[in-house]
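TL;DR need structure tokens for one chain.
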Amino acid sequence: MEPKTLFDKIWDSHVVDSIPDGPDVLYIDRHYIHEVTSPQAFSGLRKRGIPLFRPERTLATADHNIPTQHQELPIREKLSRIQVETLSENCKEFGVELYGLGHPHNGIVHVIGAELGFTQPGMTIVCGDSHTSTHGAFGSIAFGIGTSEVEMVFASQCVLQPKPKKMRINIDGKLGEAVTSKDIILYIISQISASGATGYFVEYAGSAIRSLSMEARMTICNMSIEMGARGGLIAPDETTFTYVKGREFAPKGQEWDKVLAKWKELKTDPDAVFDKELHFKAENIQPMITYGTNPGMGTAITGCIPKLEEIRESEQLSFKKALQYMGFEPGMPLEGHLVDYVFLGSCTNGRIEDIRAFASLVKGKKKAENITAWIVPGSRQVEKQAREEGLVEILEEAGFELRQPGCSACLAMNEDKVPAGKYSVSTSNRNFEGRQGPGARTLLASPLTAAAAAVTGKITNPADLM
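>> reply
TL;DR here they are.
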């Protein structure tokens, strides 16, 4: 038997048909939906007079548009309210399980899928949302799809998809103090650029990756999309199995024993060949921060923005434009630069470990006066856990408040918008112009770096406060 990569094993076992010189018809195990990319797909089914083929494989939540305060009241913003109400009506009509506003399982789609045990190793998973790649942390093939493809999955439980090339990124060694999985992925993207993995599906491997918790792995897979990849995945291991076991929708009893035996086979064969392979040393990674308008424009906090002559000639124009938007100069250090907003949350860093990390650093300190901080849990379950663990008290004593779950200031589709010209240290995934609000300036960083900025009021290396 020819040796196979983990990606090939999962993909090939889900191919229903192959179109000669064209895409594969890929069977989909799990379909997640939310209020923004599903309405037109439901309308398509209605126009064609067909049912949703396998509603039990679809799970819905409201997350992008929902407010993060006073969720018990009607949504004030008209468009948001219409989208959330439409999702509710569509799910009722087509028999889809919905975790709407106020439901104990409500939260960001890429947070709840994992915490409820819906996401499992070896699956194919799609959602009309680019950060579906998060679920690859479980050793599954997970990727974002467009609205017309959402309709395709509704109608057939399949999607037409060309098979991507394969890349493996190895990170070996021991991570330094205050270096998190967010720093790992920001470092990789800074090294290979925001388009460096275009056309590939990435497997992350190496001792530094294996040492990470499931939530940390989710952060890395989540941002695979920010280097152009179709998705990212990590081979499941004991860490994965321990995380999944006992969750609400995880297999139980004999069924668990059966799937576990299968899941243990989910790994790349020793001699399998990748189209591209990269190696990085964990020791070279420091706490990172972005300075530009794509996630590849990043540097160590203790470093400086590159000088113009260090940038390839073909990229100098966009580099200058990005710095102009950000109000920065080539060659300037970032450490000590004053900031205005801090956002902890999103499908990248809105899980319980992220809130724990933030709380551990602000404990016994006080929020800086110049900082507006939004601490937004990724789900109702995360919010509940933060209260039970006493994290809310720690945050409140330091001058912070925990908001209600939702996508929030990651993409500013609700009221949580950073004003024009203001600097935001954000644990989210994108920093392009206007992402957090028209004219907002976003610096992507880890929860520890966000916490350090929140208590000092400026860009600060979290290692200095630990």
